[in-house]
Specification:
Strand order of the largest sheet: 6-5-4-7
Largest sheet: 4 strands, antiparallel
Structural class: alpha+beta
Helix content: 10-25%
Distance between the termini: 48 Å
Order of helices and strands: HEEEEEEHEEHEH
Strand content: 25-35%
C-alpha cells in the first residue's frame, strides 16, 4: 500500500537543502546534517567499486580540519540540490565531470579559487595485507589542505 511505497526510497539516499543545512538520508551510507556555514570545500570523487557497487560520491569538507561527509552522487534530488547549493554559495557550480571515471579520481567544485583541482589523494598503504584486501587510503589533497590552512579551520 501507500505506506510501504513511501518507505521504499532510492537506495542511494536523498540529498537536499533545508533551512540553513544540507541534509542527507541513506539507509546504506548513513545520514547526516551539515550547516552550510560549516562547508569549507565541496567536490566529487570516484573509486573502483563500480559497476556493481556505488562508485561516485560528493564530499563536503567541514569546519575542523580533515573531516568530511559523503553522499552518493546518485542520491534523489541531486540536480535541484546542486542548483540550490550554487545559489546559496553565490556561484554557479562547475559541471560534475567524473561520470565515466572507473578509477580513483576527484575534483573540487567549490570554492572557485581551487575548483578543478584534485580533492583527494588516493594511495595504497604498504604491506601485503593492503594489496590482498585492495585497501586504498583516501586523504585530502595538498590543494585542500593548503586552502584550509590559509582560510581557517
Amino acid at each position: 500500500g501507500l505506506i510501504s511505497s513511501m518507505h521504499k526510497q532510492n537506495k542511494f539516499g536523498r540529498l537536499w537543502l533545508e533551512g540553513p543545512s544540507i541534509r542527507y538520508i541513506s539507509e546504506d551510507y548513513g545520514s547526516w546534517d551539515l550547516p552550510l556555514s560549516q562547508i569549507r570545500v565541496f567536490g566529487e570523487f570516484t573509486n573502483q567499486n563500480g559497476p556493481f557497487a556505488d562508485d561516485y560520491f560528493f564530499a563536503f569538507v567541514r569546519t575542523g580540519n580533515e573531516h568530511w561527509v559523503e553522499a552518493s552522487f546518485f542520491a534523489e534530488g541531486r540536480e535541484l540540490f546542486l542548483k540550490e547549493l550554487g545559489t546559496r554559495l553565490g556561484q554557479n557550480l562547475p559541471s560534475t565531470s567524473l561520470t565515466f571515471s572507473t578509477d580513483f579520481r576527484s575534483q573540487i567544485l567549490w570554492p572557485q579559487e581551487i575548483a578543478g583541482k584534485a580533492m583527494f589523494d588516493f594511495s595504497q598503504p604498504p604491506g601485503l595485507l593492503a594489496k590482498i584486501s585492495f585497501r586504498v587510503d583516501q586523504c585530502l589533497s595538498a590543494a585542500v589542505l593548503d586552502y584550509l590552512a590559509k582560510n581557517g579551520p
